[in-house]
């Protein structure tokens, strides 16, 4: 594999997606890339010293075509500055929210779905109808903001099948069609609300609020006091929804890009 040497540190590409920084045969830094389902390539660098970080980043960037992306905790100023020195700029910010589940706190105890709409509880959706809704919503997202604005975990590969994990989804149903969905990942101690999405022709009817009321109520009855959610700063509707139920910001992540 290729290697780069500077000031006693040797940078070696040890595999297609992995680089090591070696000093006196000791690994003092690692770099990795991975391709997200939407096709974008993201980078990660972990190094003992800032100078090693810079060498690793330079070596990786020299090997790969642009654009390239990375995600950093906005509070980590040191890491952010390293990527900025490498030429990365901020593309978007995601707020990390803590969402209470108690209906007396959220005010969602009386949040009913709109007339003609019912909520199908977590894990009880029909797979064929959920797949149909999932694909429709993905197409609507792609036609508007684009897949790259969605959480990575809910993105299909552009040329692959849509995959759904039934126990993680609750849906809103109207007649024989599903019109909205919410995805809840059972992360230890604090479940994560990964996605709330409603068909475009059903917006502004209270469907998303009813779905959120259902999942938070379910978690509350299970003894879970809070859930987490990531919200794109530019998504005003999602921001208003979580703020309206008493959620609070616990941090933020920056998606950086090198074009």
Descriptive notes:
The chain has 259 residues and is an alpha+beta fold. It folds into two domains: 3-94, Aminopeptidase; 95-252, Aminopeptidase (3-Layer(aba) Sandwich). The chain has helices at residues 50-63, 77-85, 103-106, 127-143, 207-221, 236-243, and strands at 3-6, 9-15, 18-23, 26-35, 41-47, 68-73, 89-100, 117-120, 169-174, 177-185, 192-198, 226-232, 248-258. It has an eight-stranded mixed beta sheet, sandwiched between helices. The protein is elongated and about 70 Å long. It starts with a strand and ends with a strand. InterPro entries: Acyl_CoA_acyltransferase, GNAT_dom. This is Acetyltransferase (GNAT) family protein.
Task: Supply the key terms.
Aminopeptidase; 26% helix; 259 residues; 8-stranded mixed sheet; 6 helices; 2 domains; alpha+beta
Q: Topology, pairings included?
A:
Layout: E1 3-6, E2 9-15, E3 18-23, E4 26-35, E5 41-47, H1 50-63, E6 68-73, H2 77-85, E7 89-100, H3 103-106, E8 117-120, H4 127-143, E9 169-174, E10 177-185, E11 192-198, H5 207-221, E12 226-232, H6 236-243, E13 248-258
Parallel strand pairs: 11-12
Antiparallel strand pairs: 1-2, 2-3, 3-4, 4-5, 6-13, 7-12, 7-13, 8-9, 9-10, 10-11
């Amino acid at each position: 594999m290729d290697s780069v040497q500077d000031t006693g540190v040797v940078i070696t590409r040890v595999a297609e997606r992995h680089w090591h920084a070696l000093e006196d045969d000791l690994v003092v830094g690692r770099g990795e890339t991975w391709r997200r389902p939407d096709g974008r390539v993201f980078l990660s660098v972990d190094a003992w010293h800032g100078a090693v970080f810079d060498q690793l980043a330079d070596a990786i960037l020299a090997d790969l075509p642009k654009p390239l992306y990375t995600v950093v905790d906005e509070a980590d100023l040191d890491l952010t500055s390293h990527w900025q020195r490498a030429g990365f700029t901020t593309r978007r910010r995601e707020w990390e929210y803590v969402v209470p589940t108690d209906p007396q706190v959220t005010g969602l105890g009386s949040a009913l779905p709109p007339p003609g709409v019912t909520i199908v509880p977590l894990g009880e959706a029909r797979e064929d109808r959920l797949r149909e809704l999932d694909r429709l919503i993905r197409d609507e997202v792609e036609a508007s903001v684009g897949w790259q604005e969605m959480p990575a975990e809910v993105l299909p590969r552009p040329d692959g099948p849509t995959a759904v994990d039934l126990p993680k989804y609750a849906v809103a149903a109207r007649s024989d069609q599903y019109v909205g969905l919410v995805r809840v990942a059972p992360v230890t101690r604090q479940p994560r609300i990964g996605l709330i999405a409603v068909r475009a022709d059903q917006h502004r009817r209270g469907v998303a609020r009813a779905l959120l009321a259902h999942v938070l109520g379910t978690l509350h009855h299970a003894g879970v006091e809070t859930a987490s959610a990531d919200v794109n700063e530019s998504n005003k509707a999602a921001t208003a929804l979580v703020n309206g139920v008493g959620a609070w910001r616990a941090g933020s992540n920056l998606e950086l890009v090198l074009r």
